[in-house]
Amino acid sequence: MTEVARAAGVSQKTVSRVVNGEPHVSAEVRDRVLKVIHELDYRPNNAARALLMGRHRRIGVVSLGSALYGPSTLLIALERAMQRTGYSFALASTLDGQDGQDGGVAAAVESLLDQGVDGIVLSEPVDDGTPLRFKADVPMVSLGEGVEMAGGPSAMVCADGVAAARIATEHLLELGHRTVWHLPGPQDWWAARDRVRGWREALAAAGAPEPALPAEGDWTPASGYRVGRLLAREPELTAVFAANDEMALGALRAFAEAGRRVPDDVSVVGFDDVPAAAYLTPPLTTIRQDFSAVATRAVDVLLAMIEGRPHPAEPDGLPVELTVRSSTAPPPRRTLTDRPAHLPQARPTPT
Description:
With 351 residues, this protein is an alpha/beta fold. The chain has helices spanning 2-8, 12-19, 27-39, 46-53, 69-83, 105-115, 161-174, 190-206, 221-231, 245-257, 291-306, 333-336, and strands at 58-63, 88-93, 119-122, 133-136, 140-142, 148-151, 154-159, 181-183, 239-242, 267-272, 285-289, 316-318, 320-323.
């Protein structure tokens, strides 16, 4: 830093302010210092900075290690949110959340603590039968379920999956369907449980019968196709809410093979709004989550805890949006005369 200061014609304190992203440095001086840093190939010694400042300037993320759209998109959004903070990014995978093994959630948290992090984001936690309880002296933010911390503070930030499932189910009921079937995700995922809960709440509020859950899927198109073939055998089925778009895609194939036209015979709603959803045949009605907003809020809350500033202490459900496309419509005419009086009249599907 002394050499950089001498070459840039500024004080060592000014170089320190530039390196640490502090204010009170003019743009001209900042550019001059950064140019010298680049020319001298200067890099901060993070270990020394951690000893001096008591912080590593690094945030750890526990990920499921999954290529599924939701977890992978959220992971990218978290990395981008951290880039603007000046904190580096450390990743530990739980091997699809299989705890009780070397790649489990607890082991991933310990790995990050051993590396040295100032806080941890627990992305898409799953239920392995044990409480999400950790002993750590750094704050943690969970993106799916509350955690218990012995040592550091914790918070939860997530989209409101229960409300989102209610919106999806209500959309189908408002079109005039007598009830809505659900194609569930794996029930060791908190997110999948939230979607089952929201589906049930919407049916109960409307006084609609609750169909039995079929075999659960595993978020993949193959599992959606497998469960979709079971659903296609139900003669009274006219509407399905799938827990994610990938399974909805598989169900569309199963319905087509069974001669059940979408949306003429069966309406289908997905969840996530994957990029391909708008280009399926027919284009898929789905729930859109704002992964960028979730990631930004999570990082902001975590930094507030790291820096001792006020932060939301209660679960913070971020809004979701129903994107209506061509996979949903009023039920076949033969079922309209059987529609219970408690259900609203069918409304045209927005374009």
